[in-house]
Task: inverse folding
C-alpha cells in the first residue's frame, strides 16, 4: 500500500539506529520520506492521509468487534522533551482519525495510588481495547527518564527496568499489539524558542510551568537517558522511531504517515457476516 | 458570539417542546438554523466551525488546568434509534475538536459488574474530568428506553427513574457541568434505507446485528419511550434538543454548531499566569 508513495517505507527511514546512539548526530531538522516540497504543502499532504487512515481504522475497529479475543490493537507511544510536540501530534495527526477508534492517555506524575503499585500497573490499565488505537502521551519510559534524571528511585532499581520493559512489550506483541514508539527529536535551541513563545503570549501561559525550565537545565542528563532508552529498548518486535521534531509540519505529517503504514501492514480484511444476510434482508422487507 | 451567525440561537430552534410531545409532528427532514443552501455546502459550513471549536475547547481545557476544583465540564449525550447517527456525529462533528480534550464513552448492554450496581454507577464513572468535553453514545436514558420497552425491570422501578435522572442531572449542573442532551430524530423509513445499505454492502456487515431488526419491530414502543423521556426530563437546567436526523449533513452540522454555541456560552477567559512571567523569561535567557 505504501510502496506507491514511498520508495523506502517511512518506518525504515525513521528507525532508530542499532548499536550505540549519538543523538547529537541525528538532524532535528531533517524531513526523511516527506513526499512534498516543504511547509507550504504539508497540510495538504497530511490531510491526504485522512481517507486511508479512516478506512484502516475502521478495519481495525471491525476486527475488534468480530474477533474480540484475538483482535489486533495498535499502541503509539509519544516521548520527547517539553514542547517537542506530543500535543501537536494529537491534534494534527491523531485528529485525522475517527475519535471513536482512538484512546488517548496522558501520563502525569504518578498519583499516590499509582505509586503504591508497580510502575507498569497504570500502563497495563491504560492499554487499548481490541480494535482500538491507543496513544500514550508519555509512558512506561518516564520510569527510566525523569525517574533516572531526578534519581526518584535508586540506580539499581531503574537499571532493571530496561529489561523489564522489553519483556513487557514482548508480551504485548505476542498478544496482538503493534507498538509504534516515537521519540520526538528536538534541538535545545528549538525548545528555547518554543518556551519563549509560551512566555510571550498570555494565551499560552497556562501551558507553562516553572518546572519546564528546571527540566531544561538538565538537558544533557535527559539526552543521556533518552540515549539509553534508544540503545536498550529498540527491539525488533517493538522498535523505536526517531521523528525529527524541529519542523512541526514534518513531525505531524510523519506521525500520521507512520501510523498509516503500520495500520496498512496489519493486512486486515472486512469481517464476514456471522448472520444470514438474505434472511435479514427478508426480515427487513417484511418489517417495512 | 453566535448572535452574528444565527438570528435565533440554535439551542432555541432545537429545544424540545414544553408539555406534551408529539414526535410524529416533528419533521425529521427539517434543517432549522442551517446557514447555507443544503447538502452541497454542508461540509464547508461544518468545517468552518473547526477554528472556533478549537479555541473554545482549548479555553475549557485551560480552565480545567488552572482551576481543577471549580472547573467547567461539558457533557453531550447522544440518544437515538440504531443508524440515527450517533457514530456519524462522533466522526464528523466531534472529530473537529482536538481529541485530547474529548472523552468519548459508548454505553453497551450492562456488564455483569455494572448490573450489580445502581444504574447510575457506570454513568458517574464515565463523567468527564475538569476541562474535558465528554460525549456519551447512549447514556442513563437507556435505563428508561430499552429497559422500559423490553421490560427489563418492573414498571414501578423504571417509573421512578425519570425523577432520579432529573435529580442526578441537577447535581451535575450545580457542580459546573453543562449538559447537551441530543435526541437524533429519524423517520422509520429512513432507518429502513440505512439498514438496507448496511445489508447491501459487505464492508458494512460488521455494523449490523439481527437485533437491529428486533428493535425496529418495536418502533412504536420506542417512540413512546422517547416521548416520555422528552416530556419528563426536559428541564431548564438540562434541556433536550431534537436534532432532525434524516439528513446526515444537517445532523452533523447541527451537533457541531450546538456544541460551539454551548462552549461559547461559558464565557471563559484565559487563565492568568500563577508565576512571575518576567522572572521565568530571565531564567530562560540565563539558561540559554
Result:
Amino acid at each position: 500500500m505504501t510502496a506507491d508513495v514511498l520508495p523506502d517505507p517511512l518506518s525504515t527511514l525513521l528507525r532508530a539506529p542499532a548499536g550505540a546512539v549519538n543523538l547529537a548526530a541525528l538532524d532535528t531538522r531533517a524531513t526523511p520520506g516527506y513526499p512534498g516540497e516543504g511547509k507550504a504543502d504539508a497540510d495538504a499532504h497530511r490531510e491526504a492521509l485522512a481517507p486511508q487512515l479512516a478506512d484502516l481504522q475502521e478495519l481495525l475497529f471491525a476486527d475488534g468487534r468480530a474477533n474480540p479475543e484475538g483482535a489486533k490493537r495498535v499502541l503509539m507511544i509519544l516521548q520527547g522533551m517539553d514542547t517537542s510536540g506530543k500535543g501537536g501530534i494529537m491534534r494534527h495527526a491523531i485528529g485525522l482519525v475517527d475519535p471513536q477508534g482512538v484512546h488517548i492517555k496522558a501520563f502525569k506524575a504518578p498519583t499516590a495510588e499509582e505509586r503504591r503499585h508497580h510502575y507498569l500497573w497504570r500502563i497495563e490499565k491504560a492499554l487499548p481495547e481490541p480494535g482500538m488505537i491507543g496513544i500514550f502521551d508519555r509512558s512506561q519510559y518516564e520510569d527510566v527518564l525523569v525517574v533516572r534524571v531526578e534519581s526518584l528511585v535508586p540506580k539499581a532499581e531503574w537499571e532493571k527496568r530496561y529489561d523489564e520493559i522489553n519483556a513487557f512489550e514482548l508480551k504485548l506483541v505476542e498478544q496482538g499489539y503493534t507498538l509504534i514508539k516515537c521519540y520526538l527529536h528536538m534541538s535545545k535551541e528549538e525548545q528555547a524558542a518554543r518556551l519563549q513563545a509560551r512566555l510571550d503570549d498570555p494565551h499560552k501561559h497556562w501551558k507553562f510551568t516553572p518546572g519546564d525550565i528546571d527540566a531544561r537545565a538538565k538537558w544533557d542528563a535527559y539526552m543521556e537517558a533518552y540515549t539509553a532508552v534508544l540503545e536498550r529498548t529498540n527491539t525488533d518486535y517493538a522498535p523505536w522511531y526517531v521523528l525529527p521534531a524541529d519542523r512541526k509540519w514534518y513531525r505531524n505529517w510523519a506521525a500520521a504517515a507512520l501510523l498509516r503504514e503500520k495500520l496498512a501492514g496489519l493486512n486486515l480484511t472486512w469481517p464476514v457476516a456471522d448472520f444470514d444476510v438474505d434472511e435479514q434482508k427478508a426480515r427487513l422487507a417484511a418489517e417495512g
